[in-house]
Write a structure and sequence with these properties.
The protein is of the alpha/beta class. The chain has helices at 8-14, 62-69, 103-107, 115-129, 141-144, 147-157, 163-169, 180-189, 201-209, 229-237; strands spanning 18-23, 26-40, 43-55, 81-85, 95-100, 132-137, 194-197, 214-218. It has a domain at 33-52 and 76-140 and 177-237: GTP cyclohydrolase II (Rossmann fold, 3-Layer(aba) Sandwich), CATH 3.40.50.10990.
């Protein structure tokens, strides 16, 4: 695909909406905030939306970066984003959710997991709280194994394997997700402590290991049914998910 010359008027609009975040692999280019009206349980709520892109090249010549994109089929790659509500940047008490993409649960409403419920419920909790951020992590499908591998894991689960056993049988670890990029973006848009909505202690520890101050944790259980009961039990028994009241340990 041939590169096309970037319209200078478009560049003047974009230049103040793009930020450079250096990381260990090169750079993250963050675009936003963008107004995003969302239908949440029948009510329109206006969020601020950001999206980011990993790139090996580090430059503040954004014209160069944007122009290169026209020669890359980005639709075949995955990009993550974050949905922000209220005065997230400056408020003293903010809640966040690090949500891993779930094609079957988030899009199709699958009852095999609780992901679709957690996605909508975390957005609802953020709005009710008055501010917060939902990080939607696109490279986390199937706890990091990808959609095709997840489909194969589902076949194994229909033949007696639990979620952990299925991933391991395919040669994967139980959970290979990485939160480094999301944490870098979080540090860019907020410097104050956050409360994390999760049942997963690994997410909590990832934030703490990065030096972020975590002021608390809110559990996010729900939508239990005959279809996902074993899945949820395995999360607790084998993946270490927490059943407590959401208090934040001091380790």
């Amino acid at each position: 695909m041939k590169e096309k010359k970037l319209n200078l008027d478009a560049l003047s609009v974009l230049k103040d909406k793009i930020q450079l975040i250096k990381n260990t692999k090169g750079a993250i280019y963050l675009v936003g905030p963008i107004k995003l009206p969302v239908n949440l349980y029948g009510e329109t709520v206006e969020f601020k939306w950001y999206c980011w892109l990993n790139c090996e090249e580090i430059t503040e010549d954004y014209e160069r970066i944007v122009q290169k994109l026209s020669s890359i089929n980005l639709a075949e790659l995955q990009q993550s984003s974050v949905l922000v509500y209220g005065d997230f940047e400056n408020s003293e008490d903010a809640i966040i959710r690090m949500h891993s993409i779930c094609h079957t649960g988030d899009i199709f409403g699958s009852k095999r997991c609780d992901c679709g419920f957690q996605l909508k419920q975390s957005m609802k909790m953020i709005v009710e709280h008055g501010n917060g951020a939902l990080f939607y992590l696109a490279n986390h499908e199937g706890r990091g194994i990808g959609l095709f591998s997840k489909a194969m894991a589902y076949v194994l689960q229909e033949n007696g394997y639990d979620t952990v056993e299925a991933n391991q049988a395919l040669g994967f670890v139980d959970d290979s997700r990485n939160y480094e990029d999301a944490i870098n973006v979080l540090k860019t848009i907020r410097q104050k402590p956050v409360t994390l909505m999760t049942n997963n202690p690994k997410k909590l520890q990832a934030l703490k290991n990065s030096g972020l101050e975590v002021s608390g944790r809110r559990p996010l259980w729900g939508d239990v049914s005959e279809y996902n009961e074993k899945y949820l039990q395995t999360k607790i028994a084998k993946s270490g998910h927490l059943e407590d009241d959401g208090t934040c340990p001091n380790d």
